[in-house]
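Researcher: I'd like a structural prediction for the single chain below. Treat it as a standalone chain; there are no partners to consider.
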Amino acid sequence: MSNENEVVKSSEIVYRVGLNAQGIPVKIEWQAEESPDTPELKECKAILLSLFDKDHRDTYKIDLWTTEMQVAEMDKFMYQTLRGLSDTYHKATNNTELANDMRRFVQYFGEKTEVAPKDPK
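Model: Treating it as a single chain, here is the predicted structure.
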């Protein structure tokens, strides 16, 4: 009988960051072994990665964006990320009230940055 926490398969996700002479990201590529859409490295302009350390119970973050990333693109990236985080928080905690508060902020953020239409309320 198999334990539900037993690792029976591993999958790799690769990030490759190209830096200029000043150490600033100018090219970011990624590949997910299990993704049919990314059989080879695919270029992107930004990455936000958060890891919760098992032993230290603390969050480590890697936030990178290339010199190509425009402010309007960052606004859209942050809006979509915050919207996704709201859904993830709700799914993980089932805290509907707080998830809805987060969604209201995301809507406000989207309206202020003009990446989301005004809520007709």
